[in-house]
């Protein structure tokens, strides 16, 4: 039996027996139901490299070959091998991992402002207010201002400052330093 055929946890024990002989208990990850194909593909990617000892030229060559074949990086394949070895050979370790912040509440800085903005009654901007906001953001052409106000007057368009600012930025980027005109606004809105 080859030493490399054993799970990495056992290889470490046999290579350095002077260290603690206590096996670390490993909690087997339970993959999601759609992870089976992902696990199988990743195992297929690293399968031939696992036939060679760690850090050997043969393993390096197999990883480079597999990286080209599967259009991924050698480092990604090395991570798959590391996860497999750290799990004691459990293929479920190759499943996609949940993010470290999974289930945590995500709080955005703008939420408080948005709530205060709506509570203060600013959510329903009049056309005159909207025109002032557009002009304050650097668009001075009257026809361009009117085109943006007309666009946000449509019932299907969400009328809030964030969307207005986003549209103004798109127009300014499209203009590439030139003054924003009604034509540029129409092109930006229709793109």
List keywords for this structure.
single chain, 191 residues, mainly alpha, Helicase, Ruva Protein, domain 3, 2 domains
Characterize the structure shown.
The protein is an all-alpha fold and 191 residues long. It folds into two domains: 3-94, no CATH class; 123-190, Helicase, Ruva Protein, domain 3. It is 53% helix and 0% strand. It has nine helices and no strands. Helix 7 packs parallel to helix 9 (182-190). It is elongated, with a radius of gyration of 29 Å.
Write the layout of secondary structure elements.
Layout: H1 8-15, H2 36-46, H3 57-70, H4 74-86, H5 109-119, H6 127-136, H7 142-152, H8 161-175, H9 182-190
Helix pairs in contact: 2-4, 6-7, 7-9, 8-9
Write a concise synopsis of the structure shown.
With 191 residues, this protein is mainly alpha-helical. It has helices at residues 8-15, 36-46, 57-70, 74-86, 109-119, 127-136, 142-152, 161-175, 182-190.
